[in-house]
Each structure stands twice: as C-alpha cells, then as structure tokens.
C-alpha cells in the first residue's frame, strides 16, 4: 500500500516543519495559557537537575536479577526532564533552562546504549546480552524514540543551541548518525519486517521515530528517499498483520503504540511528499484501525482488555482526535475530545510522556480539542460488533457491557484466555480480565505461562480434569457464530480445542448472550468420554457475597451486580491481594476469584 507510493515519489522532499521552532516566539506565545503555565512549573522542578548516571552494572541488573524497572526508571526520568525543560524554554524564551537542557543532551549522548537491557540482542527472541556493544548499536523501541527526542530538540532549539556552541548540534547529529541512521540503513532488525515473520507494535513505533530522526535533522535528498521507501516497506508489513476489521490483537494500551504510531507515520510521509499519501486515510482498513480505540472503550477510564493490556489503558486525547479528524469520523472526534477533557489536568502537558513529539502535538491542538468538546453536543455511537481477525465480540446496552474473546492463544502478548468473557454494569467492572503484572525477565521467557495472570485459571474459564488452556495457535475456538440485533447480541463457540487432550473433552460449547435491557446469560455445555472434575473460575473486582436462593447459587458482587449460577456449587472464594505497581493502576484494592464446582454438563450464569 505505502511502499508503492514511496517508490514512485520522484520530487524533492518538502522541509519537515510540523511545529514552530522556538525562534517563532509569536506562535509559542499564542498557545493555551494553562498549558504554558503548567509547562513552566513542571520545568522549574528540573532546574539544576542531576541527570542520573547509568552504569555498566545498572545495565547488567536485568540479566542478573530479571528486574527491568530499576534501570528504566532512571532512563526515562532523564528524558522526561529534558522534554519538560525544552518545552518551557520554547514558551519562556529567556535562556533560563538552557544549561539544564545542554546537560540533558550530553547526558543522553554519553549513555553507552539507548536500547533497554531487555532488548539488548540482535536476533529476535534470543537471550539478551549482559552489556551493550557501543560499536554496534541495537535499534529497539527506545533507541529509536531517544533518536526522535534528540532530533526534535535539534529542530526546536537549533538557533539557541548554535548561539551557545556549534558543537551541541554537531554532537546530536553525530550520535544520530552512529546510533540510528547507520544501523537503520545497514542492519536488519526483526521489526523492520521481511514478509515472513510476524510483526507487532514495534514495527510501526520504531518506524515513526526513525522517520522523525531523519526528517527533522537531515536534508540529503537521496538518503531520505531510501529512508522513505524502507519505512514504507516496514509499514506495509505492519499493515499486513491486521485484518480488514482493524482490530489490534495487542489491546487498547498497545493501540497507542500501534494504530496511533501508524497515524504519525502517515502524517510524516504525507507532509514531506506534499500530500502524496492523502488517499491512504480513506482506506477502509485504516479507518477501521483508527476507530478501534473508541469501539473498545467501556466507560470513563475502562477499556475492554485482553492479553497484556490493562483495563485502564489511558485517556484518549489529541492523537486520537487528530486521527479521527483525518479519517472524518465525527463520533470518534467527540469521544477523544471528551475523554481528553475528562482527564484534565493530567492530559494537558503529559508530564510522563517519553516522546517529545507527542507533547508538541498536545501543545498545538489543545485549544481546538477543548473547543470541539464544548461545542459538540451530539452523542457517541458505540457499535455492537465482532472482530473476526482476533475473535473479539462486544455488545452493550444502557446498563450492561459484554465482551467475549474467541480467537486463539497465539496473540501478541498472549494470555491463555480463549473463550473468556468480561462484564461491566453501569460502567463498573463486574467480571474482569485482570491484566498483567509489571514486566520482568520471566514475562518474555519460556516460563511466561507460569505467571498467574497469563493462565486460564485466572480468567473467566473452567479448569477441566486439572488441565488449563495451553498457549499456541492450535489452542483455539472453532465453529464461532454470532448475531447482533437491537434486542439480542450473542456469540457461540466450540472450545474443546483450547484445552489439551488430557482434559478428556469431546465438546465444550460456550454461548454468551446480552438480552438488551434485561440481563446477560452465559451457557456452558460439556461432553466427555467419562466424568471428570471441573472448576469454573470467575474473577471479580468487588467482593462476592453468597445469597440464599432456591435451586441456584447466587452471589451479590458489591454494588456491581448479581450472579445466578445453575449447574454448579460454590467451592470457595479467594482473595487476591494487589501489590504489583502495574496492577495497582487499575485495581485499587484486592480482587476476588470465585471457584465453582461444575456438577452438570450444562452450566448457566445469569448476570443482572
């Protein structure tokens, strides 16, 4: 799709000037007052900032202990500081922040590596090397992003840097040449794509940042043509991984690194080629990819989550708004604008955003997005839908929200969750997908499925004859059928193949139905060679309390809703403390696991 346009482009490239540089004082003075004030206050916290040193033993900490957070906290703190200081200098234009900016530039340039320790390898899925080879830089997500940050600083502050010393920009250019330009053009990293192996968010996230690094600092037309073609090849490999329905198989959080990075990639290549790529925005797949984030939104902070995605996936905002504007999706524009406003003040200046370019997009779109949110009174159209490429089913009414994950157990960032469902009532989580704990070395190792959050026993699924679902493409839902009407939305699937043969399953049919305005009904039907023990797990956020009921198991789940289960008896209710920082973002207190002994070949759960 994109490579053909790039290969046929023969004109000179337009100078890439996406935002005013710091020398355009009038443009920066005209920005939103709240944004300017908060930007300066944040930067003042970094005056005389002592940029942390990243030692060799700091880098080796990951291979020695499996902990990746200690190194990453200091690595990203440096970039947060530099971003804040640069924006404040653009606003204030008094030179007050320049010394700290220069210290930040040189501190980052003096790092032995820009890749993170968990990504320090040259071949996909191979063990990480304990230390970086400074003579052969690895282009990972954050090496590419660091390049983009420094390139953006170079672009914004060119005149101010040269007024102090010509060697500052020269140092940035030298490091970009060595750490980004040369490896990008001369070394194949897996995320670049070759048409044979699967891609994920890395492909387009890295590509976006490489394009920023080149087009913000380089004027060599022949070189830029090579970059354009190579970047568009990678973008096409990325697009090939998506179904026409536009579903992100990594979930809502990763959409921000997938769909939105595709948007910025398109914005860059379209700008530098004089709108040669404008037609791509009207492609149905691109439109579907853009709208995915709105379609999986549940209420307020909550999104449908599966795999490593969190249910609190972050507020929508400026990038979603701009993407929606490009594809002329007014409903998505309203969704993004209102969510941005609902997230204020946190969404205003993005204080923990690593990418300086995203902060610029915020700065120069805030007035438009705020005005749009205030002026537009129309509703947001959330469709009931089924995404066949991933097997995601979504249905809702004014009270209840039902999502079901069919597909298989070979998604990117996979959890063994085929057939699992998620239910919200009145915008509150009732039956949940827990998400994932903080990443460690174990997370992306052969021992991944030893982690409890990855296992089917901690999703809304049964353990059958002691057997959990297994990972791999062969463990999948079959015979999936669904229907979507104004009165009833339902999906049915055969799940026997999602479990190993030792389960003894001949058939396991799960049917999930939203009867609009009434209730949700989950029906499980089993067939075996012989009777085997089965325990159904149901995960809740609020504490479930058993209630008396004739002929059924009833549980009140806090204020969220009531479960009525027939065909099973209560085995136990487990309390699971939430101590992991990543899980604590979405679950502010302990969660609960209801274990139900399945005593009938037909089990039914009613939610109301």
Description:
The chain is built from 20 helices and 21 strands. The protein has 608 residues and is α+β, with helices and mostly antiparallel strands. Among the domains are: 16-187, no CATH class; 385-607, Beta-galactosidase, Chain A, domain 5. The strands form 5 sheets. The chain has an 8-stranded antiparallel beta sheet, with no helix packed on it. A 5-stranded antiparallel beta sheet has the order 3-4-5-7-8, with no helix packed on it. α8 (158-164) crosses α9 (166-186). 46% of the residues are buried.
Summarize the structure.
By secondary structure, this protein is an alpha+beta fold. Helix content is 38%, strand content 19%. The radius of gyration is 25 Å and the shape is globular.
Q: Which strand order spans the largest sheet, edge to edge or round the barrel? A: 11-12-13-14-21-18-17-16
CATH level 1 name of the domain at 385-607: Mainly Beta
C-alpha termini separation: 47 Å
**Given the C-alpha coordinates, what overall shape results?**
globular
- Structural category is alpha+beta
CATH second-level architecture of the domain at 385-607: Distorted Sandwich
Beta-strand residue fraction: 15-25%
Measured on Cα atoms, how large is the radius of gyration?
Answer: 25 Å
pLDDT < 50 stretches: none
């Amino acid at each position: 799709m994109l490579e053909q346009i790039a290969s046929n482009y023969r004109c000179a490239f337009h100078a890439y000037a996406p935002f005013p540089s710091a020398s355009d004082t009038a443009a920066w003075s005209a920005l939103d007052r709240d944004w300017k004030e908060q930007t300066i206050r944040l930067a003042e916290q970094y005056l005389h900032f002592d940029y942390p040193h990243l030692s060799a033993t700091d880098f080796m900490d990951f291979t020695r202990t499996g902990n990746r957070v200690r190194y990453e906290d200091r690595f990203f703190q440096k970039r947060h500081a530099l971003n804040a200081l640069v924006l404040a200098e653009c606003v204030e234009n008094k030179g007050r922040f320049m010394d700290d900016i220069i210290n930040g530039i040189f501190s980052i340039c003096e790092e032995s590596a820009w890749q993170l320790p968990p990504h320090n390898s040259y071949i996909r899925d191979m063990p990480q090397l304990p230390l970086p080879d400074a003579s052969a830089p690895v282009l990972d997500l954050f090496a590419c992003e660091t390049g983009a940050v420094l390139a953006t600083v170079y672009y914004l502050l060119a005149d101010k840097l040269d007024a102090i010393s010509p060697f500052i920009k020269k140092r940035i250019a030298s490091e970009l040449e060595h750490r980004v330009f040369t490896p990008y053009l001369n070394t194949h990293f897996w995320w670049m794509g070759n048409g044979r192996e699967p891609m994920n968010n890395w492909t387009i996230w890295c590509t976006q940042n490489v394009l920023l690094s080149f087009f913000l600092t380089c004027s060599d037309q022949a070189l830029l043509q090579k970059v354009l073609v190579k970047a568009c090849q990678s973008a096409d490999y990325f697009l090939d991984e998506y179904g026409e329905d536009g579903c992100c198989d990594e979930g809502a959080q990763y959409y921000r690194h997938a769909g939105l990075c595709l948007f910025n990639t398109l914005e860059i290549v379209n700008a530098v080629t004089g709108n040669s790529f404008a037609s791509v925005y009207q492609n149905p797949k691109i439109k579907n990819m853009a709208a995915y984030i709105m379609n999986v939104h549940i209420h307020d902070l909550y999104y449908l989550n599966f795999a490593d995605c969190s249910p609190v996936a972050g507020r929508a905002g400026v990038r979603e708004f701009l993407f929606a504007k490009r594809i002329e999706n007014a409903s998505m524009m309203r969704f993004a604008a209102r969510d941005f406003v609902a997230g204020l003040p946190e969404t205003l200046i993005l204080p923990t955003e690593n990418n300086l370019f995203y902060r610029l997009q915020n700065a120069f779109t805030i007035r438009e997005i705020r005005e749009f949110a205030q002026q537009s009174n129309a509703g947001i159209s959330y469709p009931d839908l089924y995404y066949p490429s991933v097997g995601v089913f979504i249905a809702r009414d004014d009270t209840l929200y039902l999502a079901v994950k069919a597909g298989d157990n070979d998604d990117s960032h996979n959890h063994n969750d085929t057939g699992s469902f998620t239910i919200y009532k009145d915008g509150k989580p009732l039956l949940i997908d827990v998400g994932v704990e903080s990443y460690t070395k174990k997370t992306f190792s052969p021992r991944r499925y030893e982690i409890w959050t990855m296992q089917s026993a901690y999703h809304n699924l049964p353990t059958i004859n002691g057997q959990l679902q297994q990972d791999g493409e062969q463990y999948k839902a079959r015979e999936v059928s669904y229907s979507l009407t104004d009165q009833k939305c339902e999906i049915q699937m055969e799940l026997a193949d999602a479990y190993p043969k030792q389960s003894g399953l001949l058939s396991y049919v799960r049917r999930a139905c939203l009867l609009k305005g009434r209730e949700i009904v989950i029906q499980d039907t089993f067939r075996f060679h012989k009777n085997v023990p089965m325990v159904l797990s149901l995960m809740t956020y609020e504490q479930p309390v058993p209630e008396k009921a004739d002929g059924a198991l009833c549980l009140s789940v806090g204020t969220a809703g009531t479960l009525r289960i027939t065909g099973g008896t209560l085995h136990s209710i487990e309390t699971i403390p939430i101590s992991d920082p990543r899980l604590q973002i979405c679950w502010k207190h302990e969660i609960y696991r209801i274990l139900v002994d399945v005593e009938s070949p037909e089990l039914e759960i009613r939610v109301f």
